[in-house]
From TrEMBL, chains A, B:
Molecular function terms from GO: transaminase activity
Family assignment from sequence similarity: Belongs to the DegT/DnrJ/EryC1 family.
Top-level taxon of origin: Bacteria
Keywords: Aminotransferase, Pyridoxal phosphate, Transferase
Keyword match Nucleotide-binding: no
Pfam family, any one: DegT_DnrJ_EryC1
Transmembrane regions listed in the UniProt entry: none
Protein name: LegC family aminotransferase
Organism: Laspinema palackyanum D2a
Length: 391, 391
């Protein structure tokens, strides 16, 4: 083992203590009212499509994020799919998304019958670089009465999807500037950033719609779950309608007025969500402590930086992230091997989306930053309960 | 109130007792190990995409139904969507489905980018009439080297979807005959028929793939849930792969090889499902008793028949169903009003799918039987716990 691997492992050990025998990347924690709420839900027998917990969870989400409306859904992929539809994405359109994202961002675009068009990231936020996007749009897009089109493919460009990577907010002021200049609707993929704020405002509430995920690996979990956030009453109503089979309310008649989905969050999962959301401030507090511990220990380290929250932002530090100063797949994989062998679950960032076989033929911008980030980012264990674990 | 309304109400009262204040159409029942299993799942912290309950539930489903493989999914709509994809349904294809079904059957076809083509039902099973289908195919289809096409629209006919209405099995021998004659893959929508058998074999296991639903109103519930059944190892593996983001297993790498979905059933919901499935034989036993009570009381009644399980079949009697001897929307709605006003939740059957605005332009066969059934079917309260309630 080289010096850098030894230092890297030693730092993990200092922050996290000994793995006994294994420290997962991110684990949920059920120390609040989870049992109580879930048991109450079972006892009520309303575990499915109707029940007070779904309503309650939606109100709590809206209050917490400051969005006017929240619609609870079956997961974050489903939420992004419907949010894109409601933003006007049509089959054959292109949707601008970061090349550096989880595959679900691209899949949701595909589920609309649209084509992802991959955009570069910036080092500070790990999210879409608004200035590079602006220059790129200037080069490859055409504005006409029908809207923005890709001058090479002739397809309409229907929306842009900033994703707040590992909880770090995108530079939304600049991104919204660019989107406004090109009349592009913004749909935020805030799957990873519940609890993250940009200039004090919650991520997912800047665009026309925003989406959250409550998968098991996220800051809070409902087992599986997601939500759409919006300030637009009409879009919120449409989101609810399209995700609940588009049925008109009637005592007995089955009248549905649109092709629609069963994307509702079951009441059982919402009950768990309510209990989890109650604890979010505490989770965030401890996650921030853990991030500070990582930051301190990696401050001194040669060759490896800790990714801190961007200026003007408060990150939820969903996944703590290290960055090799010299991007190198070989070094990255050596560190990953050492850490995982030692029982610390660590991961690289995602394979860039344009390198996956099903998205290889999709259009993409030059991606110099994303390419570097791909070879240099490493996620380290980040559960709230790890704060202070090494002491 | 007329004599028929009075008799109808009186019979409900005799079977169900007084509504105190309300008898729902179908309620779940959690009197077994539900809390134990769900609590164990919470305590394990594995509530989401991994965990023993999903595996366990799949094994239990396969054992119970006799299918070689079961893949647990987020709901019945998602299950049918993926089953149709795996049966080879492509955008622009037509898929034969009954006009008399819940809207989800048609929506799942739409989610493949395909077009539902509506087929008539028969009185005995309430499901697709194989003989009418055969004659209709003879008239409107063309067989060529590219497969079966609709001679009027020119579109490929990709599959046929028998749906086992309210738990009553379709005449599968005849249906399979027709499907084989025309080389049409069969995908069974068995959302309503867990526990129903045709000639001793479980519904959902006759076609290339079959699908179940565990929505809150079904025989057993997981909050929300569904499954794909198949005897084909390759299709089962594909179903799992496509519903779990098509990720290749690797210690840390994110490699996904197809546009895919997040349609997995959370472990939390699977835990509930395991406890529910343990009780299915008891639920079925009591549901059958309740059906016998309905059958007896309506045997004597003028103008109204009770729908009994078809020959050679064992129905789960998911929803008990009455049938007006003289189809009449007016009479149907008078009975529905009387029952619902009295606190007995009753429902008509679904509005025929070709009458819904989004499916109004889809092709359909002549639908004389479905049209009559639409004006004559009434579902009455059917929860297992209602057996003996009126005594
Ligand atoms: C960036 C991003 N988008 C979308 C999703 C999809 O959320 P879900 O897993 O709840 O479908 C996730 C999380 O898995 C994600 O990290
Ligand atoms: C005939 C039929 N098909 C499909 C479904 C869809 O199942 P789910 O509600 O679980 O999506 C249902 C039940 O709602 C159904 O009754």
């Amino acid at each position: 083992m080289d010096k850098i691997e030894q230092n890297f492992l030693h730092a993990l050990q200092t922050v996290l203590g000994q793995p006994n025998p294994f420290v997962p990347l991110h684990e949920p924690e059920f120390m609040g009212n989870e049992w109580e709420r879930v048991k109450d839900c079972l006892d009520s027998t309303f575990v499915s499509s109707i029940g007070k917990y779904v309503d309650h969870f939606e109100v709590m989400l809206a209050e917490y994020t400051g969005a006017k409306y929240a619609v609870a859904l079956v997961n974050g992929t489903a939420a992004l799919h419907i949010a894109l539809l409601l933003a006007g994405v049509k089959p054959g359109d292109e949707v601008l998304i970061p090349a550096l994202s989880f595959v679900a961002t691209a899949n949701a675009v595909s589920h609309c019958g649209a084509i992802p068009h991959f955009i570069d990231s910036e080092f500070e936020t790990l999210g879409i670089d608004p200035f590079a996007l602006n220059d790129y749009l200037n080069d490859f897009s055409l504005s006409s009465s029908e809207g923005l089109t890709n001058r090479f493919t002739g397809r309409r460009i229907a929306a842009v999807v900033p994703m707040h990577t590992y909880g770090h907010p995108v530079d939304m002021t600049s991104l919204l500037d660019v989107a406004n200049r090109y009349h592009l609707p913004v749909v935020e993929d805030a799957a990873e950033s519940l609890g993250s704020r940009y200039q004090g405002q919650h991520t997912g509430t800047f665009g026309r719609l925003g989406t959250l995920s409550f998968n098991g690996n996220k800051v809070i979990t409902t087992g599986g779950g997601g939500a759409i956030l919006t300030n637009d009453a009409e879009l919120a109503q449409q989101a609810k309608h399209l995700t609940t089979t588009a049925k008109h309310p009637h005592r007995w008649e089955f009248f549905h007025d649109a092709v629609a989905w069963n994307y509702r969050l079951p009441n059982l999962n919402a009950a768990l969500g309510c209990a989890q959301l109650e604890q979010l401030p505490d989770f965030l507090h401890r996650k921030r402590l853990l991030a500070q511990q990582y930051q301190e220990i990696y401050r001194e380290m040669e060759g490896i930086d800790f990714v801190v929250e961007p200026a003007n932002s408060q990150s939820n530090y969903w996944l703590n992230t290290l960055e090799l100063r010299q991007p190198s797949f070989e070094m990255r994989d050596r560190l990953l091997t050492a850490a995982n062998d030692a029982g610390y679950q660590c991961r690289p960032t995602w394979k860039l989306l344009h390198k996956l076989p099903m998205y290889a033929d999709c259009p993409h911008a030059p991606l110099p930053v994303a390419e570097q980030l791909e070879a240099s980012l490493i996620n380290v264990p980040s559960s709230a309960k790890l704060a202070g674990a090494g002491i």
